[in-house]
Every structure is written in structure tokens, then in C-alpha cells.
Amino acid sequence: MFVKHLFDKATHKQHEHIPDDNVSSKKSTEINVQIAVHYGIPYTASTMAFDPIQRLLAIGTLDGRIKIIGGDNIEGLLISPKKVPFKHLEFLQNQGFLVAITNENEIQVWNLEFRQLFSSSQWETNLTAFAVVPGTCFIFIGDENGLFSVLKYDMEDGTVKTMPYHIPSDSLAEKTGISSVDPQSIVGILPQPNTFGTRVLIAYQRGLLVLWDISENCAIAIRGNVQTKQNNFPASELEEASEDERQEEEMEICSLCWASGTGSVVAVGYTTGDIYLWNLSPNKGFSHKGKEAEGTSNNALKLQLASGDRRLPVIVLHWSPNSRGEGNRGGHLFIYGGDEMGSEEVLTVLSIEFPTGFESMRLISRVDLCLNGSFADMILLPDSVAPEKTPSSALFVLTNPGQLNIYDCIHFSTQKAETEESYANAEKFPVLVPTVDPNITITKLCTLSTKVLKKFHATKVGRPPLLGGTKWTLTGGVPSEMSLSKERLIERMYIAGYKDGSVRIWDSTFPILELMFVLNGKLAGMGIGGENTSVSALVFCPITLTVAVGDECGLVRVYKLHENVDDEGHMLQNGKGIQCNAAAMVSNSPVRTLSFTKVGQFLSVGFENGQVAVLQVSNLSAIFCTELSPETSSPVISLLEITTQGDLSPIESPKSPKVQKELLISLTKDAHLSVLDASTGVPISALALCEKSDVTAVSLYALDLHAKEAKDTSKDHKSSENNTEAMKAQNSNLDEMSSTDDLAADQLLLICCGDVLLLHSLSYILMGLDKHLKKIELPEHCCWSALYRNVEKNSIDLLLVYQTGSVEIRSAPDFKIVGQSSLMSILRWSFKTNMDKTMSSSDGQISLVNGSELAIISILAAENSFRIPESSPCLHDKVLAAAVEAARSASSNQKKRQEQIPGILGGIVKGLKGGRGDNSPKFTDTLQLEALLSTFPFAEQSVDALDEEEFNIDDIIIDDVEIDEPMGCGPSSMQNVGKQTKSDNEREKLFEGSSEVSKPRMRTQQEILTKYKFGGGTCFLVILSFLTFFIVILHKRFFLNFRMLLLLQPMQKTSSCNGKRSLIG
Question: Based on C-alpha coordinates, what's the Rg of the chain?
Fold first, then answer.
């Protein structure tokens, strides 16, 4: 039922309409766009979070997006309803939820399984600190007024609830004895390791640090506002710092982190550029009023990265222990900030050791990591589920714009100071689809209509290890079973050309892309120049499985993929890869467009200088190549092959036989249309579509309405009538055509220009008549377009992308607006220069590239050609989550059984061990923690204060109290009566029934034995027996062992003389 509830909730939220401020209210219909594929890191990335159990990385952006990255090419994109930056981001570890806080103090909880925003709540004040208790759904937050609050995400209700537990700043000041000052904002919250959220360090803006115990409702340690002796080591030696100097400094905290695995040392960065390491171990002389005993040890050590007076604030601090199980012996402190203003932007790594304790701290080495861009955020990825106990395996550094660099942390542990340069090199984050390195220049999204190509059975190779040999750390997510099927057909491919001349081909049937081929630009043994030149044009023939590539030098290459496919449709594997089958250079002008004709037998080529050539695909021999002409010197942007019936003469005789003719129509950038004989290259007609000299043509399409009607005849009679009526309604707006039959019988050419849409008849063009059937002025400048068939609506639609990023859909051939949106509302992208060159479409699917990002969106979301969500990878591994929870439960139960001791014996052992450790968890269960957080910590204190103010026990005369009503018998009354009776019985036993209490006196050994031994005091003997047993096991650890044995010897003799059996035996 719980899973069904979540699914219903996700389905409901998915169909909710989310308003967007970026979409104009004037738009008629919002386009139902589905983001099927998204790869790459957004250029607005600003913050990161990591789930050490699920091994997922989350990256928040400044425009309200969250990027999720896992293993096996699994990536996902979450888009917030508002375009607002995220300032805090953290996983509910192993729960499948991600908590995000925006700059507008909106608390969002995302469900990773359904990729939906499940909860959103607005906080009234400005949130300045945020932390999630590991392994729970509890969230600690701090605000600008110094209020510490606790939230809980209820997974069943899908809501964030405010817990009663909270700590106001004035209550904290009264509890700890700190002088009350103006409210200070909380700038940091750190749950102490190994305490299961029962202890938390709260950092206030003006330097106050309070280690608070939630179970005891008291402060364990207070730092930052007390006089302490500091040490300052700017290099490698320790030096004492002046106390007067510290008192004069304005110590405002801006970053902090734990600097030990036990939570006994915290590193704090200040706005002055200083870093203090504070010892949080409770001193023996500490009282809950916040005062330290005199003569205590040093509590703080001071670090300075630079000696100048003007230093940058220490913005980021992170800690990684040296190795497993070493506790406080040392580690690496990662620092951003603290250097002199104007210095080079670096990330500093300090290697610190604690040989014999906090006071023996020493600096081993310092390394400055140069950044590739301005710093945005950093995160350490631990190699286990306990970050505070194990060293980090990798360091991820995020810089602007959207660059992620990786450092192998094994270098920081193995290298010494004299070889600092060896581990200062960063690795670029590996990407599935490169867009920047190398630079992508052209793309092609292709649909395989024949579906003869089966899944590429390449040997699956995981991510390569880091430079230091560390295994790849991001392994989260679960691919869909549909994508893992070995016998599935490849339905879609994504092809990209690069500046280095290479071409890469991916299987894009499902949301997880799989790399199939890498075609390099080398031409071994062909003797043709132009190798490794930037790719400028691409085309793919789905029938013959042939790829044609054109570059900036005019070189054309052909790769025949079908020669590498066996009879069953599987790709053949060989060490050489796919080799170039043919290459030719007909012109020295760059290739601008390519088109296959006659079912892939011929290849049409359009050049930068306006030339057009037709090549035979088998050997790339030239069939013809047009001559250079001043009138056609503009780049060819589109080539179209059309088969027509009848003679090509301007005046056709009605009795002339209908003979099929192949026409090749070319459109240049300056809107000149040319018609050639596809077999000979003989010019048939030429036409200038626009009189304006600054007009820019975008694309050319052929509308075959006759073929559309023929396709509809296969349906039932009623559907055919409806389609005919719809077609007549569309064609009624074409004033230049006499009837629907005339329109359907002719070929229509749709020319899209920057400012206008034109509809021409092929017959008129062949006659040389500049007479358009329809002309529509566009409201904005169009940069890219795509024509596709909407099967659901049985229509042909034209998609237009304007220079402002607006997206518009118009029906053809009447050009009515049927939908509007924008790249900003869909992907949070702005249209950039040359973005149109990396856009491509196929059957309503559109691929786009923006910086490091690649997206494939589906305009026909209702058709769901990607079969989402069945084919989508799951961002939360429920099997792994259940296994981890089961392991934790078994470990917890085993630990409880090992530590389970009878009440009397447990008290003895606790006394022998000296009580509980500094931060040993008293609660290890979520229900116990929730019980602690379900009460207000200062409620009892308030009641006590009220009682002391209004009542005095000495003024109350019991005899004067009149009781008019019988005593209540509720649970509270019964509990008090029981306590009183038990207290009276214990008093009577203690004083042997006497009401008078005499002055205490020293009793002799014989009196004690007579009272407790002969008088039947067996409880005393039982305690002594267990105590003796444990003292022997502990190897005579305490000197009381010897005295106890001496005491028990006469007791044994006395017991033997009276004929009684010894209990010690």
C-alpha cells in the first residue's frame, strides 16, 4: 500500500500544472514537452551533495535545477517550479530522497525514484544553516535569529513536519550562563559523529560554538567566547599568539567542519582569514553554566595561510582522516580562502597530525591546487558509508562554468612534501557525450525505420580508475530491464561530429545512451589530405546504414556500417573498428549540407561557395558538380530530392506521357532556390524568394499532402471522412489554389526564413513564377526549424525556434499557432550563438547542445517513443537500500546482545569502566531519537522557574489545607502514590522501623557481618560475588580485589561452622 501511495502521488504531481513566470500569458497552448535524455553538468552549477550508500552525486544550480549522476551512464535532471538558486543540498541517506533549500527559503524534498517534487514548504525566516542527521529523516536548521529547529520528513504523508524540539537563543543563553546579546544567526550545524544525532555542534555568527546534548538538554562544551591560549603556525612550526590580539579581532564564523573522526576537534574558518582548531573534549571542571575551571588545557590552535593583513574569508572547510581506525591521529584539511587578497585562486590542502593528542598537533605539508575557473563548491567522496571514520577516495572540485575536476585522494596520503607537484594534477570529469573537449560541431538524430540493427554487444567496460588507481566512486542507480535486454532492436541513433574530425555514434533508443562507434578522421592509404579537419556536415541513411561526413576542407567520407553487421543484425567486433570506405574532395570549399538520394545510392553535397555535387556512394565518384556562379555564391543550406510526374518543360501538354523525373532542389542562405536535374545537373529553374538583401534562409521542406491522404485511406470509412474534412479546413486558407484536389495533387515547398514563412507550389517554381501560395510574417527572428508528423492529431507540424529562445509550433500548411513555449521554461537554457548547428530532429524528437549539456526532448510526449518511465533508469536502488538496512539492523541487534548485562551487574561494570565515553551514543534507534525531539527542551525549566517565583514551601501549612474532593485515580495520581509508598518503605527499612534518625556512626566489621550475613542479607553477598568475579576477569585491575578476598575468607569460615552452604563456592 505504501508503494502504491507513492506511485499515485507521483502520478498526480506529474499531471499538475506548474505555472512558470518565463512563459507569456498570451501564449495559446503550452507544449507538452518530455525531457527524455539529459547528459552533462549545467553551466550554472553551484553546490553539491553525495549519498555515500547509494553512491549518487547531486549538483544544484543557480537556475533551479538539480543534476543527479550515478554509474553506468545513469544521469537525471530535476527541475524546480521556480528559477531560484539552491543554497543547501543534502541527501536523506539511503532513503531515496533529496532535500534542497532555495534562496527564497523554500524547503523542497525530491523523490528520486519518481523524479518528482514530493514536498515544498516555505520557511518564514532566512535559513542560514542546514544539516541532515545521517541515516534518518530528521533535519536540523538554523535561521538568522539564532533559532535552532528540527524538521522531519514523513515519507508516508510526503510532508515536512516541524518537531517540538527547538532551541531559542535566549533559552540557550539562560541555560549555559552566556551573557544575552543581540540575536546572532546560526552559520553552521554539525551533528557529532557516533551520536546518532543526539549531539550537535551549533555555530553562531559572532564566534560562539556550543556542543549541545539533546538527550540531556544541556551544553557539553562551549568555545569561542572564553579566554583560551592559542598557537599560531603559519609554516611548519608552532608559535604562541597574543591573547590581546585575539580579543581585538572580529571573529565572525563563515565555515566549519569536524577535524577528527570522534568529533572532539572542530575546524572553524573566520572572515578574518584565520582558522581555529577547537578542542571540544569536555573538561573536568566544566559546568553547564558555561564556565571552565582554572588551569584547563589549551582549547584552540590557530592557523594562518598567509601573513598579510588583508586576507580572504575562509569560505569552505572539509576534513578527511588519514586512514581507517586512527581516530584523532591526523588527516587532511581542505581549505578555500584564507590567502591574501588578489592572490591566485587555489584550493589548499594541509596535512595535519595529532601524535599524542590535541596539544601535540603539527603541520606536515601544504599543497595548493590550482583551479580551472572560479571556485563554486567542493566535496569529498568517502570510500565507505561512514565518512567521518574512513579516508576519502576522491575530491570533486566544481568551478564555473559547470566544470567538475577530480583528484585522487590516495596521493594526499602517500606523497610527501618534497613531491607536492606530483599530485596537484586534476582529472576532468568523464562524460559520455563530449561537447567541449573535443568541441562538438554538428549533430544528427536518426530513426532506424528498418529496425534490422540489434543491440550492440560491446564488452561492457566500467569507468576507468583515477590516476592513483582508485576505483570510480559513482556507481549509483539501476538501469531498466528494458535497456539491458540483449535481443532488443536499435530504433534510434545519435551521431555527433567534432572539431578534431572524429565522429561518434550512440544508441539512443532509451534514455541511457550507449556508445557504439568512434570514427576517427584518419584516411589510411588513401592519399587524400584534409585529415582531422573539423566536421561540418553529417547525414545517415537508415536503409543502407551508411554515414556520410563532410568537413571544412571539402572532404567527403563514407562509412558503411552494414558491412560490420552479421546476418542476424548484430554488430561485428574487430580490433580495427569501423574504417572509412571511400573519400573524395570535389571542391576546396567547406561542405555545408549532405543528403542521400535514390534510396542511398547517391549522395548530394552542398558547399560553402554555392556549388552542388552528386556523388555515387559506392566509390564517391562525381556524377556532376555545378560551376561557380556569382549569383549562387551563397552557402547551400538545404538540399531536397523530389520525384515528379510529367515533362520538365515550363508548358506541359495535357497529352504528354507521365514520366517520373528526379529533381534536386537547393536553397542557399540568401534565399535563392535552384532546381536541377538530379541525373545530369542541368539547371531547370532558379528563383529569388525574397527581394530583401538581408534575408536569411533557414530550411526547406516538401509537403506531400497527396501522400498524407493516401495514408489515411487505410483507416475506416468514418475516420477517412473526418480526415478529409480536416484537410479541407486546413486548405481553405490557401487562396491561390482552386480546390483541395488541386492542392493535394501538387508538391508544396515550405521555405522557412528568418522573418517569414513561405509556401510555394512546385509547379509555379518550375515555371519560374515567383508566386507564393501563403506568406506569414514571423514575430521574431527564426534560427532553426523542424518538420514532423503528429500521428495522434493526424497533422503535419512545423517547429520554430527563435533567437530569443522561444519555441513555437505551427500547423502546416495553414501555419496556425498550435503551441508555444521556450527553451528557458523547458530546460532553463538561453539560446546562444551557433546553437542551431548542434540541433537536430527526427520524428518529433529534438536534440540540443548547450555548453556541456546534451538534451533530447520529445515534442510528441503523448506518443512516448522513449517508453518512459519503463525504460528510464531508477535513481534509487531499493535492493541496496534494503540490504544496508538489514545489515544495520543485524549489527545493532548483535551489539545489543553483547552489551546486555543484568541491572546490578551492569551498574558494577559501568562503574569499573568509568562511565560513558565522551560521545558514545545512548540512542541508536530512530524511534528513540524521535521521542527526544517530540518535546520542548526548556519546558521543565520554565515550570520550575514559575514554581520558585510564586510558591515557597516554608509558607505552606499542611493542616490548613482542606480537601473537598477525593483524590483522583488517574495515571498521574497513581504514579505519585506509588512513589510515595515506595519511599516510605525504603525509609522504614533503612532505619529499622524507627522514626528517629540518630547521628551516623562508624560500625565495626563484626556488626556489619552480624547484620547482613547472619541476618539473611543475601543481596549483599550476591553483589560481592559478582564483583569478585569481574575483578578476577579484569586481571586484578583495581586494588580493591585484594581487600575483597580478605573480607570474604572469614565469611566462608563462619558460614561453614553454622552448617550453611557458601554462596561464593
Answer: 39
Residue corresponding to grid cell 522513449: 866
End-to-end CA distance of the chain: 60
What is the rounded CA–CA span in Å between residue 699 and residue 837?
12
Lowest mean pLDDT among 253-257, 308-312, 679-683, 690-694: 690-694
Cα–Cα distance for residue pair 876/683, rounded to 1 Å: 61
Question: DSSP assignment, residue 1011?
Answer: I
Number of Cβ within 10 Å of residue 760's Cβ equals 23
Cβ atoms within 10 Å of 88's Cβ, excluding its own: 21
The CA dihedral of 278, 282, 285, 288, to the nearest 10 degrees, is: 100
Q: Which is higher by pLDDT, 181 or 728?
A: 181
- In terms of C-beta density within 10 A (0-12 exposed, 13-18 middle, 19 or more buried), how is residue 1024 classed? middle
Alpha-carbon span 265 to 970, nearest angstrom: 49
**Contact present, 596 and 548 (Cβ < 8 Å):** yes
The grid cell for 408 is: 585522487
- Output the CA torsion sign for 58, 61, 63, 67: negative
Select the highest-mean-pLDDT range: 804-813, 909-918, 989-998, 1010-1019: 804-813
| CA separation for the pair 69, 121 (Å, rounded) | 26
Average pLDDT over residues 677-681: 92
Q: How many CB atoms lie within 10 A of CB 534?
A: 18
Structure letter (DSSP) for residue 88: E
Nearest to 349 by CA among 364, 362, 367: 367
Closest CA to 180 of 202, 199, 206: 206
Query: Can you tell me the distance from the alpha carbon of 389 to that of 52, in angstroms, rounded to the nearest whole number?
Result: 12
Beta bridge partners of 660: 645
How many CA atoms does the CB half-sphere of 164 hold within 13 Å? 11
Indicate the pLDDT class of residue 25, thresholds 50, 70 and 90. Answer: very low
Backbone angles phi, psi at 925, to 5 degrees: -125, 140
Let me know: does 266 contact 278? Beta carbons within 8 Å. yes
Distance separating alpha carbons of residues 130 and 376, to the nearest angstrom:
18
What mean pLDDT, rounded, does the chain reach? 77
Residue 114: predicted pLDDT: 95
What does the pLDDT average to over 946-958?
45
Q: What is the Cα–Cα distance from 136 to 926, expressed in whole angstroms?
A: 7
Greater confidence (157 vs 1007) lies with 157
Task: Dump pLDDT digits (tens) for 495-531.
Answer: 999 999 999 999 999 999 999 889 987 776 665 666 7
Q: Give 519's strand partners.
A: 503
419: which 3 cell numbers?
A: 613531491
CA gap 335, 318 in Å, rounded = 7
**d(Cα 551, Cα 533) in Å, to the nearest integer?**
6
pLDDT tens for 714-765 read: 333 333 344 444 444 444 444 444 343 444 457 899 999 999 999 999 989 9
CB 257 within 8 A of CB 319: yes
Per DSSP, 829 falls in state: -
* Side-chain half-sphere CA neighbours of 623 within 13 A: 20
* φ and ψ at residue 1022, rounded to 5 degrees: -65, -40
The torsion angle over the Cα atoms of residues 479, 480, 486 and 489, rounded to 10 degrees, is -120
Q: CA 496 to CA 505: how far, in whole Å?
A: 7
Q: Where in 705-761 does DSSP place strands (E)?
A: 748-753, 756-761
Pairwise CA distance, residues 820 & 824, whole Å: 12
Note the pTM of the prediction, 2 decimals.
0.80
Name residues whose C-beta falls within 8 Å of residue 1002's C-beta, 6 or more positions apart in sequence.
none
Q: Give start and end residues of each alpha helix (H) in 626-716.
A: 705-712
Beta-strand ranges (E) seen in 386-483 are 392-399, 403-408, 427-428, 440-447
> Which residue bears the cell 522573418?
755
In the chain, what is the greatest distance between 2 CA atoms, to the nearest angstrom?
144
